[in-house]
Amino acid sequence: MKGRSRCRGPRCGHSWRWPRSSPYKLFAGSAADNRGDPGAGKKGGKLTVLSAGDVDYMDPGRTYYTYAIGIINAVHRGLYAYPPDKNEPVPDLAAGDPEIAEDGKTVTVELKSGIKYTPPVSRDVKAADVKYAIERAFTAAVANGYAGVYFGDLVGAPKPGGDYKEIPGIEITRFCNVPDSETGVCPSVGWSQDFADPQTMLDPTFNGNNIIPSQNSNWSELDVPELNDKIEAAKLITDPVERAQAWSDVNHDIMAQAPTIPYMWDYQAVVVSPNVRAVQSGYSTTWDWNYTSLR
C-alpha cells in the first residue's frame, strides 16, 4: 500500500496518508487468514487500534454497536461464544448445547459449575444472574436495542423502556443439593448409616464444613460453629464408649436445632396375604424379594 490508502466510489471523497516513520501498523493478511491459525499470534503485549469511532457503552447490557460488542466479548462471558475459527456458537458459561422442546417453545440451558466472578464479587455465577441480565435489558435505565427483538417473545416479557419486572417465562430449576438454588423446602429426603457408626449418619448431613456448591449432602445447610467443632472432635475419639457418648451429645444438639422433620419409614404399612412368607428389608422397610417366598 506504500503509505497511501484511497477509497473510490460515491461515498469516498478523501484519502489518508501516513509518513514512512508513522507509528501505526496495518494488519497484514485477511480476517480469514487470522481465523485459520488463531494460535500463531504472540501472547501478551500492547495493541493500539486506530478506529473511526468509539465505544457507546462498556455496560454489556447497554452496548449496541458492533465495535463495542467486540470489546465486551473480550472482557465478559456469555452463555455461548464464537471462537475465531468457528462459525457456530460454542458453550461458554453453558454446560452444553441448549435443549429445545419439540414444540420449539421451551429452551433449557444448564450452566457450568465452579465459574466465578472476578474480585471483588468473587462468587459463583448463578442461573439467577442470567435471568436478571435479560430482565434488566428491558428497563429504561438500560434501554437495550436488542432486548425486544431477541427476547420479546418470552412469556410475560414487558415492553422495553419501562420499570424492572421479572419475566415469568424465564424459569430457574432449583436443586436441593445446590446451596445457591436457595430452595426453601426439600421434601422426602432420606439417608441411613453406611456403617454401624454414628459418624456416617450425622457428619455428612449436619456438619457445616461439608457444605459444598453442588452435590451437597448437608441438605438443611445446617452450619453452627459450636456444633461443627463437636462433630470434628467426636470424629477423632477412638474409645468405643467415649465415642458413643460424644456422638450421642452431637445428636442431641442437632435435634435441638430442628433442621429436619423426621420421616420414619419404619411406620410404613405393608400388607401380605396368608400364603406368602414375607421378609421385610431392614434398610428400606419394603419387602425383600431375595428372601420372600410362598408358604
Task: Report what the structure shows.
This protein is α+β, with helices and mostly antiparallel strands and 295 residues long. Among the domains are: 188-263, no CATH class; 264-295, no CATH class. It has helices spanning 31-36, 66-75, 127-136, 147-151, 199-206, 225-235, 240-257, and strands spanning 4-6, 15-17, 80-81, 90-91, 99-100, 107-108, 276-277, 293-294. The strands form 4 sheets. A two-stranded antiparallel ribbon has the order 1-2. A hairpin with a 6-residue loop joins β5 (99-100) and β6 (107-108). The longest helix is centred in the C-terminal third of the chain and has 18 residues, at 240-257. It is elongated and about 85 Å long.
User: Using only CA atoms, what is the Rg?
Assistant: 31 Å
Largest sheet: 2 strands, antiparallel
Shape: elongated
User: Taking all residues together, what is the mean pLDDT?
Assistant: 79
Distance between the termini: 99 Å
Computed structural class? alpha+beta
Q: Please list the strands of the largest sheet in the order they lie side by side.
A: 1-2
Order of helices and strands: EEHHEEEEHHHHHEE
**Low-confidence runs:** 1-29
- For this entry, what is the oligomeric state of its chains? single chain
What level of helicity do the residues show? 10-25%
Share of residues in strands: 5-15%
The number of distinct β-strands equals: 8
Q: What is the tally of helical segments?
A: 7
